[in-house]
Amino acid sequence: MRSRVFVMLALVVSMLVLSACGGGGGAVKIAILAPLSGDVATFGQSTRDGAMLAVEEWNAKGGVNGKQIEVVVEDSQCAAEAAVSAANKVIDQDGVKFIIGEVCSSASIPVSEIATAKTVFQISPTSTNPSVTVGEDGTTKPTIFRACFIDPFQGKVGAKFALENLGAKTAAVFLDQGNDYVRGLAEVFIAEFEAGGGQVLVKETYTGDDSDFSAILTKVKDANPDVLYLPDYYSTVNLIAAQAKEKGITAVMLGGDGWDSADLDRTALDGGYFTNHFSDQDTRAIVQDFVKKYSDKYGAAPDALAALAYDAANILFKGMEDAGKADPTAVAAALEKGTFDVVSGSVSYDASHNPVKAAVVLQVKDGAVNYVATVAP
Ligand code: PHE
Q1: Is the minimum distance from the CB of 309 to ligand 1 under 6 angstroms?
Q2: Is 122 in the pocket of ligand 1 (CB under 6 A)?
Q3: Does the global pTM surpass 0.85?
Q4: In the predicted model, what is the mean pLDDT of the chain?
Q5: What pLDDT is recorded for position 18?
Q6: DSSP state at residue 141
Q7: pLDDT over 90 percentage in the chain
Q8: CB 54, CB 316: distance < 8 Å
Q9: Residue pair 149/126 in contact by the 8 Å Cβ criterion
Q10: pLDDT, tens digit (0-9, with 9 covering 90-100), for 24-82
């Protein structure tokens, strides 16, 4: 009995030593920063799962540049303060030089400032606000990238879809002023909708703490617009949509990638449309191959967050191989030069470290989310 315990202990110790050393060749440490708890927890869970699938695949193939990848996961809560402490922790205490995250723009922007100051590489899978990769002075942050398109494109796709496909002439727009993503996307939608001849009849703001939207919904009811644009995350959109239905508002609800969640209220949002990065109904082989691997492993189809986190990790690891070393500046140079054929499209970077790629439009209908269209940049 005692010898068996000893053998077990020896095994555990040697496994620990092996993993710490990455099988003898040293390990490459990365961090995943994502909201794993709170209002938008499905964002973080999908992001972690998508990135971890890529890590496991690379490690099974022998790692990156012959080294195993080691991952530190932090719950950065989709919030500036929590994300800043998580970033400082992984950089200063864990010695991480490569960050995948955050999901939400308001969290990714402050993380990008820390990463820039400390010459740490950051790739956000999903943060679509332009300020993640570009500073206030207009210069590109040298080691900051993303795997997704940006909101000036996403907002334009939403506005054009409303005007051209839905034949909308009038709109109402709700926005949370304190959220970089929501404010940015709302502004682009309004500008593009008006530039295309549409009229915005109602523009109302709320705060992240609000849960009663009846006062501003009454204005929508009175103005009776063709569409109601709700560019927030699913947790808030669920509340607004349920209250809108209760009030008898018939405007078609429209939104952005923030709607993408298994917890989206598909009853309250029935008939609505949203712009997104990915559809699991896309028939391309690279997409269906990923959908199968992900579903086999996690028991549910991947959403856009899972797909983009998988892509961000693959871009990072391919960049490390192209660079020949795990050095943030060298990896950044490799990304600037390379083209990466990933699940959400073919990624090559513009001068602002943004991929130029297509968006999809999805419809919520009868309890399902269905692919409607692909819109190229
Ligand atoms: N684009 C959102 C942001 O920048 C994050 C997000 C992306 C959420 C994709 C859901 C799906 O904050």
Answers
A1: no
A2: no
A3: yes
A4: 94
A5: 45
A6: P
A7: 93
A8: no
A9: no
A10: 459 999 999 999 999 999 999 999 999 999 999 999 999 999 999 999 999 999 999 99
Q: Please report the beta strands in 218-357, taking only residues with DSSP state E, as ranges in sequence order.
A: 227-229, 252-255, 273-276, 339-342, 345-348
Please tell me if the CB atom of residue 276 comes closer than 6 angstroms to any atom of ligand 1. Answer: no
- Return the CATH class of domain 6-149+283-357: alpha beta
- For the CA atoms of 336, 113, 181, 240, the dihedral, rounded to the nearest 10 degrees, stands at 140
94-109 average pLDDT score: 98
The response to whether residue 126 sits with its C-beta less than 6 Å from ligand 1 reads yes
Residue with CA at minimum distance from ligand 1 atom 8: 258
Are 303 and 284 contacting, i.e. CB atoms less than 8 angstroms apart?
Answer: no
With 50 as the cut, is the pLDDT of residue 286 above it?
A: yes
- Best residue among 42, 48, 108, 127 to mutate for probing ligand 1's pocket (most ligand atoms within 8 Å of CB) is 127
- Please state the CATH superfamily assignment of the domain spanning residues 152-276 in this structure: Response regulator (3.40.50.2300)
Whether 173 lines ligand 1, by a CB cut-off of 6 Å, is no
Distance 305 CA to ligand 1 centre (A): 8
Q: Is the CB of 131 under 6 A from ligand 1?
A: no
Phi, psi of 93 (to 5 degrees): -95, -40
**Cβ of 76 less than 6 Å from ligand 1:** no
Query: Matching CATH topology for 6-149+283-357 and 152-276?
Result: yes
pLDDT one-digit tens code per residue, 335-353: 999 999 999 999 999 999 9
Q: Is 164 helix (H, G, I), strand (E, B) or coil?
A: helix
Going by C-beta distance under 8 Å and a sequence separation of 6 or more, which residues neighbour residue 12?
A: none
CA distance 150 to 171: 22
What is the reported pLDDT for 138?
A: 97
* Ligand 1 pocket member 63 (CB < 6 A): no
Report the nearest atom of ligand 1 relative to the CA of 259: 10
Alpha carbon 119 to chain centroid distance? 23
Listed by start position, the domains of the chain span 6-149+283-357, 152-276
CA 284 – CA 288 distance, rounded (Å)? 6
Q: Which of 109, 230, 257 to mutate to test the pocket of ligand 1 (most atoms within 8 A of CB)?
A: 257
